Amino acid sequence: MTEEMRIPLFPQLRLPFFLRLLACYLVFALVAGIFLAEVTVHPVRNVQGPADEMRMRRTAQQSHYELVDATIAAQDGATLRAWSIRPPNSNGNVVLLLHGLGDNRTGMTGYADLLLSHGFSVLMPDARAHGTSGGNLATFGLLETDDISRWLDWVQQNDHPMCIFGLGESMGAAQLLQSLRTETRFCAAVAESPFASFREIGYDRVGQRFNTGPWLGRTVFRPIVEFAFLYARLKYKLNFEQVSPEVAIARTKVPIFLIHGKADSNIPVRHADLIFARNPGISIWEVPNADHCGARSTAPEEFREKVLGWFASRETSQASSAVRASPQKASAEYMKRCPLKVVRKGSSANSGPFRTPKGEKSTGYPPVVAYEIQESGEITNIHLTRSSGFSSMDNYALDGFLGMRYNARPGCGVLETEATVTIDLGP
């Protein structure tokens, strides 16, 4: 009698092995996800040393810049610190400089040098959990958006700028773009090498280990990303799904100049394309042969011309908008919120000094122009005194008081005045 052979449809040994393999992979993905989340929210803190600070202060002194320490309290109580630097002949504008991950304010020194040499004041903060700023967690825009708004408050209260611009690189660029979801006080922004969303850069980070691009993170290693997001949300209450510069800029009215190196090996140029696709009104410059945040070193002259030109054009546009705004009276509340501001301050060897006539009220930026405010809110008796001939810079200053260029910045409109302007050319 022949014994019938039975072949099992599902071999008993293979199924348990597959389950064990799957369980091992999920454990690996969980551990890797937790590790990824922890190193992401706790970047290595790179604190500028005493030598770096002394070098910056020495440079400011040699260039006759005014460097002051700035401090604000964040919403969660963290103390945030920055340098505020003003050139001797300021153009009346301030640029907020935002550094990248694992860096500090000194990493933005190259940008600061360029801007200061062209009359811009700069504010250089250490991001939370970076440099000398407080905060235990880097949140990539979740908390930093409010930090940026608080820095803008500080700038308006201390500098009273005509325009506030933003310039960020890498993480700082992404934070800058995310702030534009709600922040409207920027006249314009420049973002170099930002990521499009935290999820997309997560896919890239996983794939970069194997030089595969984002597809590996989207497929085989996707559980690592998912566990990292879940862990951050459960332990730190951080919803990284909301970290998305591409979504934040979709409806912003703030002009954006996007810069990205085509050879970026850290945040691939596809992120710039994803951001641009959400808002085709953005201006974009993809720099050949430039690596991560490498536009300034790869094409220095073009970088200088494009960035300075971008800020100059947006300042002009902002001023034009102010001219079209409804005239306002010089009420006490208005004057407190929008102090009189004349771009020309101090003196120079070329044009001679301004001086304020004795006994008259001045703008608070002496020596510039004298004026009087009546109870009706009208400004009268505008008086400009010079010790040499009248120049185009005086014309620029007086235009402000005639309502042509007065307070051309967000939140301040054209001032209504029919005051007679007296010009004294001096002896």
CATH class of the largest domain: Alpha Beta
Number of strands: 12
- End-to-end span in angstroms? 134 Å
CATH superfamily of the largest domain: Alpha/Beta hydrolase fold, catalytic domain
Basic shape: elongated
Tell me what you see in this structure.
The chain is α/β, with parallel strands linked by helices and 427 residues long. The protein folds into 3 domains: 13-42 and 198-239; 50-196 and 243-320, Rossmann fold; 332-424, no CATH class. It contains 14 helices and 12 strands. The chain has helices at 14-41, 50-62, 109-116, 144-158, 171-179, 198-208, 215-218, 222-236, 245-248, 270-278, 295-298, 300-324, 332-337, 392-401, and strands spanning 66-73, 79-86, 93-98, 121-125, 163-169, 186-192, 256-261, 283-287, 354-355, 369-373, 379-386, 421-424. The strands form 2 sheets. An 8-stranded mixed beta sheet has the order 1-2-4-3-5-6-7-8, with helices on both faces. Strands 9, 10, 11 and 12 form a 4-stranded mixed beta sheet that branches. Helix 1 crosses helix 8 and helix 4 packs across helix 5.
